[in-house]
Design brief:
This protein has 3 helices and no strands. The longest helix has 14 residues. InterPro entries: P-loop_NTPase.
């Protein structure tokens, strides 16, 4: 029997996302920023998001991270 697949928005899914980032993007020693961690699971779940942040704050992660 297979365990159910966690949703990205669940705490388990969030932890899995953090692990993926720490392994695949080692140049981010502090991991994802709070707004990234909050919204990337929404992107992975197929939801639309609108984020306003300063230049260089990591908005590109919203389309880069799902490719990992």
């Amino acid at each position: 029997i297979m365990a159910p697949v966690p949703k990205w928005t669940d705490p388990i899914g969030s932890d899995i996302l953090k692990q993926i980032i720490s392994r695949r993007v080692p140049q981010w020693p502090n991991g994802l920023r709070d707004y990234q961690l909050e919204n990337i699971p929404r992107v992975l779940a197929g939801q639309n998001i609108l984020v306003f942040t300063a230049t260089g704050d990591g908005k590109s992660s919203f389309y880069d991270i799902p490719l990992l």
